[in-house]
């Protein structure tokens, strides 16, 4: 009898281990699956729309969803991925901080069998994310370049303010723009500097550039937050009446500014479309689908003075 009693603590220990194992990892079949929405930064209203739309669509489809802010920091982004994997999230809807630096984070999720759907920004790998839903930034900025040439009458001095240098969107937009504008030798770029897609940094960058080049005629910005910062700088310098500012995103404040004659144009992206598509892809993945496009382009539309009313209070 005694030798059987000595086995009871061992059996209880084994039972406890099995119980704990059953409580960890991904949700049980009768519990809703969990979706992590990891966003590069929530310090930009455009990315707030992207993140909230993704989370809302995931919840609408019946899943739990939580938004994580990487604050444009790849190390913090890595922490979010590790936490999401360890906490049993079943999918990640992802807006990367860096096209190269974010690849390892996506690969960690893949190794843990957690699908990752990139939104708006891509990672430089075709083997990492399950799918990447991206704005067609290059084509959008080809159209922007054509309009820029028209508005400038093919001549003048301009400044280009770039976004994050590690984001492919920065270079897709710049290359699309220059593929047109560089064909006109009387259009002179006097400065090209990064402001990290940040409004305040863009204002500071342009204020500094204006000290050396006060006679510029235009500013092309890689996103709308920077366009608003650039506009603040030209207003402060007293030259807003002659310097045209061009943005990219389709943010509400820039759409209103175009309508008010302050900003010249922007490229309308569709964050809600990209976010909802990513959440829908996750839903389809949960239901067994595995054949997703590696890259899904979403068209960008040029918004300017003569069509801005079509875009007011839309998206």
UniProtKB/TrEMBL annotation:
SUPFAM superfamilies: Periplasmic binding protein-like I. It holds the Pfam family Peripla_BP_4. GO terms for molecular function: carbohydrate binding. Residues 1-29 form the signal peptide. CDD domains: PBP1_TmRBP-like. Its main location: other. Keywords: Signal. This is D-ribose ABC transporter substrate-binding protein. It comes from Pontibacter qinzhouensis.
């Amino acid at each position: 009898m005694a030798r059987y009693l000595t086995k009871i603590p061992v059996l209880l220990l084994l039972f406890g281990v099995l119980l704990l194992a059953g409580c960890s990892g991904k949700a049980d079949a009768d519990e809703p699956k969990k979706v992590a929405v990891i966003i590069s930064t929530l310090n930009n209203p455009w990315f707030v729309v992207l993140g909230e739309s993704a989370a809302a669509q995931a919840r609408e489809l019946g899943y739990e969803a939580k938004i994580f802010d990487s604050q444009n920091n790849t190390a913090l982004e890595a922490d979010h991925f590790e936490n999401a994997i360890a906490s049993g999230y079943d999918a990640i809807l992802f807006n990367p901080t860096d096209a190269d630096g974010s690849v390892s984070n996506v690969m960690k999720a893949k190794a843990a069998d957690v699908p990752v759907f990139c939104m708006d920004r891509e990672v430089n790998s075709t083997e990492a994310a399950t799918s990447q839903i991206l704005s067609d930034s290059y084509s959008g900025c080809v159209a922007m370049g054509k309009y820029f040439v028209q508005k400038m009458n093919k001549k003048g001095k301009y400044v280009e303010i770039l976004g994050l240098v590690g984001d492919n969107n920065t270079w897709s937009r710049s290359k699309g723009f220059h593929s047109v504008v560089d064909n006109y030798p009387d259009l002179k770029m006097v400065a090209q500097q990064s402001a990290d897609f940040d409004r305040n940094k863009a204002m500071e960058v342009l204020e500094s550039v204006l000290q050396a080049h006060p006679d510029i005629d235009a500013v092309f910005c890689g996103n709308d937050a920077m366009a608003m910062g650039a506009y603040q700088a030209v207003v402060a310098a007293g030259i807003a009446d002659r310097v045209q500012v061009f943005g990219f995103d389709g943010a509400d404040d820039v759409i209103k500014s175009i309508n008010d004659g302050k900003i010249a144009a922007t490229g309308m992206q569709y964050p809600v479309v990209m976010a909802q598509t990513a959440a829908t892809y996750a839903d389809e993945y949960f239901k067994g689908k595995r054949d997703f496009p590696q890259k899904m382009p979403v068209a960008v539309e040029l918004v300017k003075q003569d069509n801005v009313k079509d875009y007011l209070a839309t998206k």
